Amino acid sequence: MQNKSIPLEADALGAPYPVIHRRLLHWVEEVAALCQPQQIYWCDGSPAEYERLMAAMTASGAAIRLKQKSNSVLFRSHPGDVARIEDRTFISTHHRDDAGPTNNWIAPDELKRTMTGLYRGCMAGRTLYVIPFSMGPIGSPLAKIGVEITDSAYVVCNMHIMTRVGRGVIEALGADGEFVPCLHSVGAPLRPGAADIVWPCAPLEQKYISHFPEENLIWSYGSGYGGNALLGKKCFALRIASAMARREGWLAEHMLILRLISPTGKHYHIAGAFPSACGKTNLAMIQPTLPGWRAECIGDDIAWTHIGPDGRLYAINPEAGFFGVAPGTSVRSNPMAMATLRANTIFTNCALTDDGDVWWEGMSPAPAHLIDWQGRAWHPGDARPAAHPNARFTVPAVQCPVISPDWEKPEGVPLDIFIFGGRRASVMPLVIEAFDWDHGVFLAATASSETTAANVGAVGNLRRDPFAMRPFCGYNMADYFGHWLAMGDRLGDRAPRIFYVNWFRKSAAGKWLWPGYGENSRVLAWMCDRLEGRVGAQTTPIGRLPEPTDLDLNGLALPTENLHELLRVDANEWQAELSDIERHFTCFGARLPERLRQQVINLATRLNTV
User: Fold this and answer.
1) 252-319+406-608 belongs to which CATH class?
2) Dist CA 472 CA 234 (whole Å)
3) Who contacts 509 (Cβ-Cβ below 8 Å, separation ≥6)?
4) CA gap 60, 394 in Å, rounded
5) Domain residues of the chain, as ranges?
6) Distances (CA, A) of 462 to 430, 447, 577
7) What CA–CA distance (Å, rounded) separates 521 from 288?
8) Known catalytic residue: 201?
9) pLDDT (tens digit per residue) in 58-97
10) 157, 201, 278, 350: which is the annotated catalytic residue?
11) CATH architecture of residue range(s) 322-399
């Protein structure tokens, strides 16, 4: 790494490979002049680069090598930098209504003025890393290129895992290719001679995760954690990409992609949207309990979908790794995830065992002694958790034992089914099939879930999370609903079938009614049977539900009363739900598509005829 003054030449900017893209070079030059780093380093994405950076962070005390997992490390973040910060996340458009009521908005000129002041000199004493990255396989017609500038080696190493980084991306970019500029700083300049801390970040009031969708531009300041700093993830792959997708006629979604294989060998491709920490990764890596059924994982978090030459919807996973929630992950809940984490993994905010491994709540019985996520001694019975509830792992997707051989297929895989869902203790039955595309969009637009530790704020409150995209949509969600309706019009009879699930319904005594995990394959199999016309369904006011005899429950000791409750639709509960849906839609005002207003009327009519 060399400190360079910066005339506009690639070699003078420290690039180890030819860079002929003049706009990119200009941008790096401008950022360096503003942020005043000690040196500039262009990432090549090589294993040697990863190991060199990780060795330096280990030597500084920022990373802890794990004795029990090959090439794996543990990081501990600052206690004030542990999750998405929705209150400090902004969609900046020239007209406030274009950001919509679910997003925080600041006018572009004002936001850039504020953040430019914060960026001035913010990288003093630090290295400015240039990370060229591809979302999606390099060269795929569905892939997009970004370049992240950061002053965090932790971010560089995570981006190595989560995206495709380096020279190949620059070659694909060429002299005039499109890229999304992503600027990030932890917001902690170093004075000359000052010692660094293990997790530098700025105070909460100085944290900004800002998106300018009209310019395809991302600026992030003050946080070094997760999607606040790994700008290829939620910032690019969802907030900016969703706006790009609307303009270009495709979909960028917060969805897993799963291949389900029937006993006869037929492939069904399923994309599923769930709020964070609601079982999305578990479903992406499901091990079916139904004899003869198999599953392969294509992606666990994000799906980019385009209409193919045959008129069907094709999906790719634009990421190269998994950034999953650790607590609750276990051999019982997700054996494939646990096997994936055997090596080459970055753990953040997990507990450390005495023999040099990681541990978190829900993994196994608690050891007698641990070092918790803040570096303090911990014993069973302590009031505080050993691992932070939003502790994470970052791991290459290719290590997953059930990764599909087609997970990097450039053209993607054809989708048969969309699943939406959330965490509801009551009201929502186990599974609903939408009457048609418009009704499916309505189900997704009114999706609700109890909040989890993945976002800053109260845990356990019920909130509407349309399409599991409320924190991630880069424009007015009413227009987003309209875009989904328009995509359905284009797809016609080739559109995937839409279902809604709730694995989390409880009895009056507070007990889970459905065993979940691999048993969810029984519900997925019913969906596939519905596609083939092999089973019927009972028509209810809220959609089509399985006939109890059409769910394959062989070998599952499910009490009859549980099944009855799982498939029960209570008209009184749904009248209250309808009122809440109407309040939810009110915030979108005149921009709410009329077709969704009609869905509210249709639901009310069906409920009144019960």
Assistant:
1) alpha beta
2) 7
3) none
4) 21
5) 11-62+84-249, 252-319+406-608, 322-399
6) 18, 10, 12
7) 5
8) no
9) 999 999 999 999 999 999 999 999 998 999 999 999 999 9
10) 278
11) Beta Complex (2.170)
